[in-house]
Each structure stands twice: as structure tokens, then as C-alpha cells.
């Protein structure tokens, strides 16, 4: 399995109606660019096996809190899944295969494992893209409870979410309704890839940063800031014609952007490089 084929599979998976996107498959195709020998079916089967083991221990009364309790006991007490607080920015935390193998992850990838198992036991849950910390909640009307997959499946209410935001940002934060709104499958994948983008940027691995941006743009073709970032990465990697195209597109869309003077200067340099 080479990189281009992994990208092709990812593209095929996401270019269908959002509700039909298989999040686990798409996440494994993201990982497959990093691990070309990865076999997605192996990890999909692992999720099936986990769900089967949870199913056997479910309580007779399928109240949401009872189901969450069963899932938490299985994932965190039996399998020992943990949030990787000591090495949060390890790229392996963002790849589903590694999260399943190592039992370590960040909020969004641990949430993905939780969601996938819950879905398989007919307990639908949705991702909640709270700023700075991804959560999940049962997809049941009027059930306003949230689960923090990063913190051992801690059950939270809206007030707890507000307190968590205040702690993270170290200042009072007003809890806006959109902070606790469900995310689409596409938005879920964009958030995963954005994490990878900044992890690799921090490591100055520009080729892998570019790969993350390219996949974000497959999901959000009109995300003009990502087009700009792709252009800047092309520039740094020496792909000058592609860089010029992206940076011109950015300026055409946002001619008064704060960084427009810098981008125009780069385009002048690119013009001299192409002569």
C-alpha cells in the first residue's frame, strides 16, 4: 500500500454523503499514509471484537448512564486505555491504529474508539467539538450528558464543560451553544487532521504538515486559510509554481488580509525564481 493509494482511499471515503462516511475507515486511511503496510480491516475487526465483548456484559436496563458505565469499565479498567498526558503531542496519539495498539491517545482519537464501539452496540453517540477539548455525548433527544474519553470516560454536564473551559483558558469563558454542538463526520476528520498539521509543524516536518493540509482541503476545498498555508508550505519545500498559484488564489479571495503585504512580497520573490 503506497501513499498515493492510501490518499485515494481516503478521498473515496469522504466524497460521499457525510452520514455515510465511515469514520474509523477514514481515520485508518489517514494512518496508512504514515504506515503503508497497515491493514485497515485488522483494526476494524479489533473494534468489532471489543464491541462484542462489551455487548456480553451490558446491563439489562439500557439506560444511557448504565451503558456509559459498562463502556467505561471495559475501556478504562479492563483494557487500560489512557489519555496520553505525558506526551500529548506524540503523532502516534493521532493515528487510530496506534491508539488501539498502545491504548494511548488524545481526546479526539479516544473519542473515536468510544464512538465506534458505542455504535456497534446500538448506543449511538456524537462528537462534540468543544474548543480545546473534544467530548462525546449520547445521540438521544433531551439527554444533556457528555463523556470525556480522555479522562477515563468522566461524565460531565454543561456546567462542568464551562468549568473545564475556564480551567483550560485560565480565564472565565461563556459557554456558547455552538461549543457543545455535534460535529459532522467531515468536521471530525478536519479536527483530527488539524491536530496532525500542528504537531508536524511544531516538529518542522514540512512534508508531513503539507500532507495534512492537502487532506484538510479534500474535506474543505474552499478553506482559503488552508490554501494559503499550502502555498507557504509549497514555497518552503521549493515547489514554486504550486506555491504561486495558491498564494495568488489567497490574495484574490482576501486582498485586504492582514498578511497580504508579506504574501505579495513572497510572490515577487517567486516571480524572480521562475524567470
From TrEMBL:
Coiled-coil ranges per UniProt: none
Domain Protein SirB1 N-terminal: 42-193
Signal peptide: none
Lineage: Bacteria, Bacillati, Cyanobacteriota, Cyanophyceae, Nostocales
InterPro entries: SirB1_N, TPR-like_helical_dom_sf
Protein's UniProt name: SirB1 family protein
Membership in a protein family: Belongs to the UPF0162 family.
Pfam families: TPR_9, Transglut_core2
Amino acid at each position: 500500500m503506497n501513499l498515493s493509494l492510501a490518499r485515494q482511499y481516503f478521498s473515496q471515503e469522504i466524497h460521499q454523503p457525510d452520514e455515510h462516511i465511515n469514520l474509523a475507515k477514514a481515520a485508518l486511511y489517514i494512518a496508512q499514509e504514515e504506515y503503508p503496510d497497515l491493514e485497515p480491516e485488522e483494526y476494524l475487526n479489533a473494534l468489532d471484537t471489543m464491541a462484542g465483548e462489551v455487548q456480553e456484559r451490558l446491563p439489562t436496563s439500557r439506560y444511557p448512564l448504565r451503558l456509559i458505565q459498562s463502556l467505561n469499565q471495559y475501556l478504562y479498567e479492563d483494557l487500560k486505555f489512557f489519555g496520553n498526558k505525558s506526551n500529548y503531542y506524540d503523532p502516534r496519539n493521532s493515528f487510530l491504529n496506534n491508539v488501539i495498539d498502545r491504548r494511548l491517545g488524545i481526546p479526539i482519537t479516544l473519542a473515536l474508539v468510544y464512538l465506534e464501539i458505542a455504535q456497534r452496540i446500538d448506543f449511538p453517540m456524537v462528537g462534540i467539538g468543544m474548543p480545546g477539548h473534544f467530548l462525546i455525548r449520547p445521540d438521544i433527544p433531551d439527554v444533556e450528558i457528555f463523556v470525556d474519553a480522555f479522562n477515563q470516560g468522566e461524565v460531565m454536564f454543561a456546567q462542568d464543560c464551562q468549568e473545564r473551559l475556564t480551567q483550560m483558558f485560565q480565564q472565565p469563558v461563556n459557554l456558547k451553544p455552538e461549543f457543545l454542538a455535534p460535529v459532522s463526520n467531515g468536521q471530525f476528520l478536519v479536527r483530527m487532521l488539524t491536530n496532525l498539521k500542528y504537531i508536524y509543524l511544531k516538529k518542522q516536518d514540512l512534508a508531513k504538515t503539507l500532507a495534512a493540509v492537502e487532506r484538510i482541503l479534500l474535506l474543505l476545498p474552499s478553506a482559503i486559510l488552508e490554501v494559503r498555508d499550502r502555498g507557504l508550505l509549497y514555497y518552503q519545500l521549493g515547489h514554486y509554481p504550486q506555491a504561486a498559484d495558491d498564494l495568488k488564489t489567497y490574495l484574490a479571495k482576501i486582498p485586504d488580509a492582514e498578511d497580504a503585504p508579506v504574501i505579495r512580497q513572497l510572490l515577487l520573490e517567486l516571480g524572480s525564481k521562475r524567470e
